[in-house]
Design a protein that fits this description.
Radius of gyration of chain A: 23 Å
Distance between the termini of chain A: 51 Å
Structural class of chain A: alpha/beta
Strand order of the largest sheet of chain A: 3-2-1-4-5-6-17
Low-confidence stretches of chain A: none
Helix content of chain A: 25-40%
CATH topology of the largest domain in chain A: Dihydrodipicolinate Reductase, domain 2
Largest interface: A-B, 30 and 30 residues
Strand content of chain A: 15-25%
Oligomer: homodimer
Mean pLDDT of chain A: 96
Number of strands of chain A: 18
CATH class of the largest domain in chain A: Alpha Beta
Largest sheet of chain A: 7 strands, parallel
Number of helices of chain A: 17
Number of domains of chain A: 3
């Protein structure tokens, strides 16, 4: 009997746990679910057969190793900085390792040892990274098998609201880690277009968007992610003239978000100490020049080129022009902004989130250049059973299941770009309605 | 006989060395000048009486301590990160310490020990920091003695070109460390105006300038330095409604420099790898969107709001629109930009630099609010005997001289904001023509 260990029973583990706990009822395996809140772990397991909740404190290496020793295979759903520590334990104790997070340099340093010990370590097997790799590689491999050449590959993904839950002017709420949303895009974004290397600094990023139409859903816009260039190697497209990966938002979001960026409100590098009792309006005014005669609204219009009513309204809806008291007066600008947004951008119980992904390929075929769109739009059930948790957790759960079933027979350090990994997982995801629709232009 | 040790015989030490070496010919003291290039140290001492050049490798702590052991007083002209190490040696060996650099946190941690040992450690005794503190504190103390209140203090300083040497459209060349010029202003600038805390992110900084007229010299513009708020404590002006410190540039400079900032060309956080043989035009184009139809010039005009001919001409003069080969194709954007600028912004032998400083005070007097301007404009001899080297080196040399003469009788950790320090130094600087002119508005 094989033993699966999941470290972390938080919100993002829900579907992963359900899938693997259910599998223990039918298959010869057991599941240990470890969390610092053992009651939370117990609740998620619902007393299913061959499952067991365990107390686990990630800061105690001794008990962590004892727990890992009991398992054959470990899934880390801990914060990203913990993965290399868990992976190192797995390596020493001879256990397989799975995560939905980025393959880090620390992980890559273990590559040779992983191979020598015949272990299987799989990272980036969630949504983004995860489903993006798998769905893209399916098209790339298929083209290469036909002897076709990929001329251009642009890929965008966003964690958004289902249209029916878009009840504010931003058409946005936090469906994932708010801090990551506030800091998104910082640094300089890099990609390649028609053979030209392109670099976009943070303060230009949200004004350099591309527009997309999703049938039945309306307009979205995408901005380039920080590093698209490294994906040339990941996808085996070293000489591709155009490669860009980006993030999708609802049309109009980026123009308004750009105001926060341009004013410096997303800066996380220093601490502000505003007087107690400061208001939203004070916070906004701190990023505008002093003026004897102009109002906050007028100064904003002077600093922000082409400020239109739709954009102004988004700030107004959040209360930035009001004497409303700030939820916190000290912290970095990004922390204060996050506290403001969390008040108005939190999902209510019934809100549904939505995952949208769009690959656009230009492929040189024997008959000419083909433009291929491949899209996923996936809507969640409610604010607990989110599309985000499902699309992150299911690919990982399926990968673990397939590995234990020996439908994936590999060893070494991997991300799901190999056909023998992505093909069975994509097929299994289709049973859950996670399916890409393709059309040619 | 007292022994002075100067660590570092580089360009910025010239006047410091001359002044103190001359003093050894008349006074009962000797000077050791230590540098990794002993021949350079020898050349600068010109065989003056009671002076001696020494070989010194700053990376060898043992020989550094042996050298310091020989001295009564040490002046560090080494790179800033070395100061705390030298100061720590001085503390252990019971030697006084002088520098023209910022008093660091590492230095402040030694404060109590410095006091206990009765040593004198003086930092920030150059130009900026240095002369700025001294000239400002003279006015502040004078107002306070008269029972007047300082309502507003804005202070700007710039290392620029003498008007007669302004032979390019930027009216600028490097008269100091080029890397610091390229990276100047990064982070978020903070100041207070009419009681309102103000924050300006880097990408707004060069468009939020104030204009100044210098009689006989023409128009200059200033942008706020990174942290003005901490100077409220330094100057004993904790409750001042307006305090701003800034950097001066020639009128029009900031608008053009802002293009580099807005495009991301001053980013030092990642490495670009452009193909060998890339041109200035390629470098510029890497920061502009791809377009099938628009030229580099047209794309620039789309990205940069209100691009005027004077600004365009500055970029053109540097060769950015030409197929001229880049001096280097890999490095951070800031490093590549610096290499470009060093080709065209280097001082020729006869070029003269100029230091400009301007304090503007608003003071509540018995008769009403007085607006007081205090200005320094100081022109160098040539590209070796620069105004920058002189205004940095002389205050430090004078401070050392006065301390040895017991005209400054202090112990502890200081910057030159005390009357007993700044008064004799400012008086001595006047003999060199380094003198502020005041006028009331």
């Amino acid at each position: 009997m094989k033993t699966i260990l999941i470290l972390g029973a938080g919100k993002s583990s829900t579907f992963l746990i359900d899938y693997l706990a259910d599998s223990c009822e039918q298959k010869d395996r057991r599941l240990l679910l470890a969390d610092i809140e053992i009651s939370q772990a117990e609740a998620k397991l619902q007393g299913k057969k061959n499952t067991e909740a365990r107390y686990f404190n990630s800061e105690d290496p001794q008990s962590r190793r004892e727990l890992i020793q009991e398992a054959d295979l470990v899934i880390s759903m801990l914060p990203a900085f913990m993965h290399p520590l868990v992976a190192r334990d797995c390596l020493e104790l001879g256990k397989h390792f799975f995560s939905a997070s980025y393959e880090s340099d620390a992980m890559r340093e273990m590559k040779k040892e992983i191979e020598e010990k015949g272990l299987f370590f799989l990272n980036e097997c969630g949504l983004d990274p995860g489903i993006d790799h798998m769905s893209a590689m399916k098209i790339i491999d298929s083209a290469h098998e036909k002897g076709e050449e990929i001329l251009s590959f642009k890929s965008y993904c966003g964690g958004l609201l289902a249209p029916e839950s878009e009840d504010n002017p931003w058409k946005y709420k936090f469906t994932w880690n708010p801090r990551n949303v506030v800091l998104a895009g910082q640094g300089t974004s890099r990609y390649i277009e028609k053979g030209e290397l392109k670099f976009i600094p943070y303060h230009q990023l949200f004004s350099r968007t591309e527009e997309f139409q999703f049938p039945g859903l309306g307009k979205y816009e995408g901005y380039p992610n920080r590093d698209s260039l490294s994906y040339r190697k990941v996808y085996g497209l070293e000489n591709i003239p155009t490669l860009l990966r980006g993030t999708l938002r609802r049309s109009g979001f980026c123009k308004a978000w750009n105001i926060f960026v341009l004013l410096g409100m997303t800066d996380d590098s220093f601490q502000m100490e505003l007087p107690e009792g400061s208001t939203y309006r004070h916070f906004l005014n701190a990023f505008l020049p002093w003026s004897e005669t102009l109002s906050v609204e007028e100064k904003l219009a002077e600093i922000i080129p082409n400020l239109d009513f739709e954009t102004f309204e988004k700030l107004q809806w959040l209360g930035f022009f009001e004497a409303r008291k700030l939820p916190k007066c000290s912290g970095s600008p990004a922390q204060i902004l996050q506290a403001i947004l969390e008040k108005d951008w939190s999902l209510s119980r019934e809100d549904k989130d939505m995952i949208v992904m769009r690959h656009v390929f230009e492929i040189q075929t024997a008959k000419g250049v083909k433009k291929l769109h491949s899209s996923l739009a996936y809507i969640g059930q409610d604010s607990v059973y989110t599309a985000m948790a499902k699309t992150v957790g299911l690919p990982l759960a399926i990968a673990v299941d397939m590995f234990l079933e020996e439908k994936i027979k590999l060893s070494g350090l991997h991300i799901p770009v190999l056909k023998e990994i992505y093909e069975p997982i994509l097929t299994a995801l289709e049973d859950f309605g996670i399916q890409f629709e393709e059309y040619e232009e």
